[in-house]
Specification:
mainly alpha, two-stranded antiparallel ribbon, 2 helices, about 5% strand, elongated
């Protein structure tokens, strides 16, 4: 979500720092539990300092869909992220 090296669909905040990328890389490269804990501790400190995103709530999500709704796509940002592309199939 906050990696500048591999931004994916969850990188909506646009937050990127070289300092965080280096800490994330140290976590990925860690060979001991001590190195891993130190790297993730640094990641947590950086994110706590900068607070790139704050979530106020988490919606429960889509509970069902109708077959007449076309062009729906699963998206990690949520079921409504692609709603602009949805279409309703007309009935005969």
């Amino acid at each position: 979500m906050f990696s500048g090296r591999d931004p994916g669909p969850l990188a909506y905040s646009g937050y990127r720092t070289e300092e965080l990328d280096e800490a994330l890389q140290r976590a990925a490269d860690a060979e001991t539990e001590q190195e891993l804990n130190a790297a993730w501790g640094e990641v947590q400190q950086l994110l706590s300092r900068d607070v790139p995103a704050t979530w106020l709530y988490h919606a429960r999500g889509l509970q069902g869909a109708n077959r007449r709704i076309l062009n729906t796509r699963i998206d990690l940002r949520g079921e409504l992220a692609g709603i602009s592309g949805w279409e309703i199939e007309s009935r005969p």
